[in-house]
Specification:
alpha+beta, 3 helices, 97 residues, single chain, 2 domains
Length: 97
């Protein structure tokens, strides 16, 4: 892609992250630093209300996901998920098995 790419969502929403709490119509604040080429997307509504929300009830894995993608997602989730840089932590996975 070229230019800003917003909305790339990892399995973070399914893992209970804040992305799964967003609802249609929620205000968000987008900031792009054009010198450093980094940006942020933040919830811009009532933060207390947002933090108390449950994950969206309709959020579920796509049943069409192939088995290898589901396995990759499970391994990522077991060893830090997207927050861990999407790098397998082999020792953590073995410990959990």
């Amino acid at each position: 892609s070229t230019g800003p790419c917003l909305g790339h969502a990892s399995p973070e929403a399914l893992a209970g992250g804040p992305l799964g709490k967003l609802r249609d119509g929620d205000p968000v604040r987008i900031h792009i630093d054009t010198r450093k080429l980094v940006g942020t997307v933040d919830f811009a509504g009532n933060l207390e209300e947002f933090l108390e929300r449950e994950t969206h009830p309709g959020l579920e894995p796509d049943p069409r996901l192939p088995a290898d993608t589901r396995l990759w997602a499970a391994l990522q989730n077991a060893s830090g998920g997207s927050w861990g840089g999407c790098v397998y932590d082999v020792e953590e996975i073995i410990k959990r098995l």
